């Protein structure tokens, strides 16, 4: 099957899951992790969260297009079947022209299936331009890390609830195939999910969404953060500590390398 057709089929399959089965999604920043996730995920996101998780940036605003492209090239090598989505970093989609140029660059260099942009009304025309140019776009509403002043959940005030619901409908009409809802209050997430025909993928937005996404480094307990919406499914830091402690001990005691490890 031609690459374009295969990609479209993957997108339709994902949309088709709405109201049928939950969509599983996680982030990956490199090949080895992506190759593990690929068997279990519908969608793998190269998130610009890599800025804080890997580079210790204060915000994702410092993430560059080049960094996203290089990490995505690595992730691409680990994915066989999942849909691969790449975040467009801050200041790479301020105008339709800029967005189109940069989205094309991301897609041609990384062979990803889609790009993700944060925002609602502000990016309506931009999303429409990308979609018109055959670029597959994912939306992102609720807490928007690229522009957020704080990370408080969204949907407390009526005006905020109406704004997010309207923006979800607007993004759908602009042609996004799915959208992330980040830190959106449960009943609002439910309302949005019911009122649009494309899948919502929640992070800190309850199980009322069509699917879930988490930052893999958080879920495996590699990234030492504690936030309400993260469940740690393992403590991989402890496993690494054990392995490195043993290695260190064996090097010091001359137990590694042995003859069988030598040439
Ligand atoms: O950057 C990211 O990893 C994301 C997810 C948290 C949805 O946007």
Report on this model:
This protein is 42% helix and 14% strand. With 263 residues, the protein is an alpha/beta fold. The protein has two domains: 228 residues, Phosphoenolpyruvate-binding domains (TIM Barrel); 29 residues, no CATH class. It has an eight-stranded parallel beta barrel with strand order 1-2-3-4-5-6-7-8, surrounded by six helices. Helix 2 crosses helix 4. The chain is globular and about 65 Å long. It binds 3-methyl-2-oxobutanoic acid. The site of 3-methyl-2-oxobutanoic acid has 11 residues, from strand 6.
Named CATH architecture of the largest domain: Alpha-Beta Barrel
Calculate the mean pLDDT score and round it: 97
Count every helix, treating DSSP H or I runs of 4 or more residues as helices. Answer: 10
How many DSSP E strands? 8
SS-based class: alpha/beta
Each distinct ligand:
3-methyl-2-oxobutanoic acid
What sequence of helices (H) and strands (E) makes up the elements? Answer: HEHEHHEHEHEHEHEEHH
Strand arrangement, major sheet: 1-2-3-4-5-6-7-8
The low-confidence runs, each spanning 5 or more residues with pLDDT under 50, are: none
Cα radius of gyration in angstroms? 20 Å
CATH class of the largest domain: Alpha Beta
Helix content: 40-55%
**Head-to-tail CA distance between termini:** 47 Å
**Shape label:** globular
What is the strand and helix layout of this fold?
Layout: H1 3-16, E1 23-27, H2 31-37, E2 43-46, H3 50-53, H4 65-78, E3 83-87, H5 96-110, E4 114-116, H6 124-132, E5 137-142, H7 158-174, E6 178-182, H8 186-195, E7 200-203, E8 211-214, H9 216-219, H10 236-252
Parallel strand pairs: 1-2, 1-8, 2-3, 3-4, 4-5, 5-6, 6-7, 7-8
Helix pairs in contact: 2-4, 4-5, 5-6, 7-8
The structure holds 3-methyl-2-oxobutanoic acid (KIV).
3-methyl-2-oxobutanoic acid binds at residues 27, 45, 47-49, 87, 180, 182, 203, 213, 215.
């Amino acid at each position: 099957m031609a690459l374009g057709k295969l990609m479209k089929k993957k997108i339709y399959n994902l949309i088709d899951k709405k109201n049928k089965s939950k969509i599983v999604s996680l982030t990956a920043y490199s090949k080895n992790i992506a190759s593990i996730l690929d068997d279990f995920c519908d969608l793998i996101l190269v998130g610009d969260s890599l800025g804080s998780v890997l580079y210790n940036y204060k915000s994702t605003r410092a993430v560059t297009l080049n960094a996203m492209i290089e990490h995505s090239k690595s992730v691409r090598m680990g994915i066989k079947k999942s849909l691969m989505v790449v975040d467009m970093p801050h200041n790479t989609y301020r105008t339709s022209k800029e967005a189109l140029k940069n989205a094309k660059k991301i897609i041609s260099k990384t062979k990803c299936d889609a790009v993700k942009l944060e925002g609602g009304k502000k990016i309506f025309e931009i999303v429409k331009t990308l979609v018109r140019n055959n670029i597959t776009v994912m939306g992102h509403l609720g807490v928007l890390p690229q522009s957020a002043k704080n990370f408080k959940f969204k949907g407390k005030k009526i005006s905020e609830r109406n704004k997010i619901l309207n923006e979800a409908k607007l993004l759908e009409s602009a042609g996004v195939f799915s959208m992330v809802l980040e830190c959106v209050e449960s009943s609002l997430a439910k309302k949005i999910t019911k009122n649009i025909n494309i899948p919502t993928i929640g992070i800190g937005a309850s199980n009322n969404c069509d699917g879930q996404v988490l930052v893999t480094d958080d879920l495996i307990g590699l990234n030492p953060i504690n936030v309400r919406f993260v469940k740690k499914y393992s403590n991989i830091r402890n496993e690494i500590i054990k392995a490195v402690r043993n290695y260190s001990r064996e090097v010091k005691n001359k137990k590694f390398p042995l003859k069988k490890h030598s040439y």
